[in-house]
Amino acid sequence: MADIFREIDEEVRRDKAAALWSKYGVVITGLAVLAVLAVAGWQFWLHREQQASQIVGARFEAALKSSRDGNGTEAESILGELAASAPAGYRQIARFRLAAEVGKRDAAAGATAFDALANDGSLEQLYRDLARLRAGMLRVDLVPYAEIRTPLEPLATAQGVWRHSAREFLGIAALKANLFEDAGRWFDAIITDPQSPQVLRQRTDLYLALVRGGPVETKN
Length: 220
What we know:
Pfam family, one: TPR_21
Strand content: under 5%
Number of strands: 0
Helix content: over 70%
Protein name: Ancillary SecYEG translocon subunit/Cell division coordinator CpoB TPR domain-containing protein
Domain Ancillary SecYEG translocon subunit/Cell division coordinator CpoB TPR: 20-141
Transmembrane segments: 21-45
Order of helices and strands: HHHHHHHHH
Keywords: Membrane, Transmembrane, Transmembrane helix
C-alpha cells in the first residue's frame, strides 16, 4: 500500500513540474540565458580593463625611463597624455609626476603645476597637502621665507602627515634667510619628534651646526 501512495505522490509531482515548465519554461530559459550573458559580459569587461591598465602602465614606465635617460621633453609629453586621458588612478599619479618633471627644468613652473593640484577639490586632502608641500619645496630658492612659511607651516603641526618634510624645508628656508631663531625652532621640532626618520635626524644635526655657527661674516 505504501508503494502505491509513493507512486501516486511522484506522479503528482511530475504533473506539477510539467505544468510549471509549460507555464514558465520560456521565462526560466530566458533568465538562464541572461545570467550566462551577464557573466560573459563581466568577464569581457574585466579582460578589457586589464588590457587597458597594462597599456597605461607600459606608457607610464616609458615616461619614467625617458626621465631617467634625461629626455625630459618626451617624459613630459607622455605624462601629459596620461594626465589627460588615463583612468583615474593613473591620471592622478601622472599629474603629480608631470609637475615634478616640469619642476626639474623650471622650478617656478613646477611649483605652479603643484599649486593646481593643491587647489583641485576633486583630490583627497592628503594629496592636496602633498602638492602644497612639493610646491613649497620648489620655491625655497625662489621666494622669501615668509612666502614659504604661509603654505608649509600648516603642514608642520604635530599631527601633520607631511610634517617631517615641511619642517625640514621651513628650516632650510629660514636658514637661507639668516633667520637662525626660526631655523632652530623648526630643526628642534624634528629632533624632538620621536617619529622623525633617522636619516632626517642626521641631516638635521648638520643644519643645527650651521644654526649654532650663526651668520658668516666676510671681510672685504
